[in-house]
Each structure stands twice: as structure tokens, then as C-alpha cells.
Amino acid sequence: MLMKRMLLFAVLAGIAAGTAGCKQQDAPKLDRQAVRLYVGDQVRITVDRPVAWSAADDFYAAVDADGTVTARHVGTTTVTATADSGSAACTVEVQPRYDTFEEPLYELFG
Questions:
Q1: How many CB atoms lie within 10 A of CB 56?
Q2: What single DSSP character describes residue 74?
Q3: CA distance linking residue 14 with residue 24, whole number of Å
Q4: CA–CA distances in Å: residue 61 to residues 52, 87, 88
């Protein structure tokens, strides 16, 4: 009986020692939550740990392995940094460099 208790104590001590060093990590932290770019511009998003980058829609903006976002077409997409501990996202809004739309002219009386 004493041997069983000692064995149980040893197993429990081993489990406690093995899990004492485990710390649940938080999701990655990006240096920005949103960014506005013009078509053709680039910006690098930095993060506090190694991550895998992805863009929700590469048509509007693409992201490379270093976190450099390249604006391609006018619109909005989301760039996501994914690590083992979670993910973080940055909204990317791509604006046109020039607006060639002419405002309509309305005459009130005439």
C-alpha cells in the first residue's frame, strides 16, 4: 500500500512539474489594426512573433511572408497574421490615387 501511495505521489509530482512551465500565449499583436493605402503603395505590418500571413482577398491587397502589404485594386480586405496561439487581423482599405469622377452641376433656378 505504501508503494502505491509513493508511486501516485511521484506521478502527481511529475505532472505538476511538467505543467508548471506551460504558459498559454496570447494571440499575436500587430502594430496597427487598420491601414489606408493608395493603389500601388506598400506598407509593412510588424508583429511580436513569427506568424503566417494571409489576405482574405488578394485582388485588393496582397501580403508576403514578411508582412509587407501591397495595394492592388480599390476596395477593402483583411490581412491576417496566424500563430500557434491565435491570430490577429488588420483591415486594409485601398483608395484610388486619382478621382476622375465629376460632380454633377445642378442649377436651382434656371
A1: 15
A2: S
A3: 19
A4: 16, 19, 17
Q: Read off the pLDDT of residues 76-90 as tens digits, 9 standing for 90 and up.
A: 999 999 999 999 999
* DSSP-H helix ranges across the chain: 2-20
CATH topology (fold) of 34-95: Immunoglobulin-like (2.60.40)
Q: What percent of the chain clears pLDDT 90, i.e. is strictly above it?
A: 62
Helix, strand, coil proportions of the chain in percent (round to 5)? 15, 35, 45
The DSSP H or E segment spanning 18 is helix 2-20
H/E stretch holding 77 reads strand 75-83
User: For the segment 28-52, what is each residue's pLDDT rounded down to a tens digit?
Assistant: 999 999 999 999 999 999 999 999 9
Amino acid letter for position 95: Q
| Cβ within 8 Å of residue 17, ≥6 positions away | none
